[in-house]
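Need a sequence for this fold. Nothing fancy.
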């Protein structure tokens, strides 16, 4: 099994718990965002390919694989802080969501390196 598939299994379990437990008073949109963060994104990361000769792409890809699950947990904590823990009027949920924002920027940088290495040609 690939290591990211192994990360998808606990993410799927967390998503099932979010959908079916009444402890999480999330809207349907928030539930699907958490499903995307824990299940869809790691499955899409499996589709990414990097050039073995390009050290920058290898480093960024490794960082993406390592930082995905902690960033998804921070996104979950941000949504829970807003809804479940009643911290909606404080800056704590926004601060927690910065982890997912930085992970998204890392994915964007990876995409830019692919475009630059292929001189503007993408599939």
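Here you go.
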């Amino acid at each position: 099994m690939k290591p990211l598939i192994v990360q998808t299994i606990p993410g799927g379990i967390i998503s099932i718990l979010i959908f079916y437990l009444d402890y999480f008073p999330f809207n349907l949109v928030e539930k699907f965002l958490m499903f995307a963060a824990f299940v869809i994104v790691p499955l899409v990361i499996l589709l990414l390919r990097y050039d073995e000769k390009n050290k920058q792409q290898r480093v960024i890809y490794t960082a993406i694989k390592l930082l995905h699950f902690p960033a998804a947990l921070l996104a979950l904590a941000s949504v829970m802080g807003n809804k479940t823990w009643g911290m909606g009027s404080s800056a704590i949920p926004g601060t927690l969501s910065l982890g997912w924002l930085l992970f998204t920027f890392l994915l964007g940088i990876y995409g830019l390196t692919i475009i630059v290495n292929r001189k503007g040609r993408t599939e």
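For context: Helices lie at 3-20, 28-47, 55-83, 92-96, 98-117.
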